[in-house]
Amino acid sequence: EVQLQASGGGLVQAGGSLTLSCAASGFTFEDYAIGWFRQAPGKERELVSCISSTDGNTYYADSVTGRFTASSDNAKNTVNLAMNSLKPDDTAVYYCAAEDQYGLSRPCNEWMLAGLKQGMDHWGIGTQVTVSS
């Protein structure tokens, strides 16, 4: 069974830190780009960060650059998103997603945006992040 499990969300004060984890099972993790999206109430789902499991290239949205860091552990089939200096605007449900790269080397955000448009290969259940002011 294909499964993506996100964890690590919670309530934190502004300026605090959280680390989200996305654990994958049922598919060959190292063939996929793994992305983190978030969706706040009344807003569209947006790509926050992604990482390519094939060549390790990463992407960060402008709003999180310098504060969030994605890392992957292929042996554990896990991608982590370390979030520092959190702001109330970071409050959202965070989802991890996986898109098959078919062995091709392309920026991971291209894979994620294509998946968002055409149908992502795999979505995980979201985890709530709430940042209080």
What does this structure look like?
With 133 residues, this protein is mainly β. The chain has one helix at 108-118, and strands at residues 3-7, 10-13, 18-25, 32-39, 46-52, 58-60, 68-73, 78-83, 92-100, 122-123, 127-132. Strands 2, 4, 5, 6, 9, 10 and 11 form a seven-stranded mixed sheet that branches. A hairpin with a 4-residue loop joins strand 7 (68-73) and strand 8. The longest helix has 11 residues, at 108-118. The termini are far apart.
Q: Shape, please?
A: globular
Radius of gyration: 14 Å
Mean pLDDT: 93
Report low-confidence residues grouped into runs of 5 or more: none
| Estimated share of beta-strand residues | over 45%
The profile of the biggest β sheet is:
7 strands, mixed
Task: Offer a few descriptive terms.
single chain, 133 residues, mainly beta, seven-stranded mixed sheet, four-stranded antiparallel sheet, 1 helix, 11 strands, globular
What's the arrangement of secondary structure elements?
Layout: E1 3-7, E2 10-13, E3 18-25, E4 32-39, E5 46-52, E6 58-60, E7 68-73, E8 78-83, E9 92-100, H1 108-118, E10 122-123, E11 127-132
Parallel strand pairs: 2-11
Antiparallel strand pairs: 1-3, 3-8, 4-5, 4-9, 5-6, 7-8, 9-10, 9-11
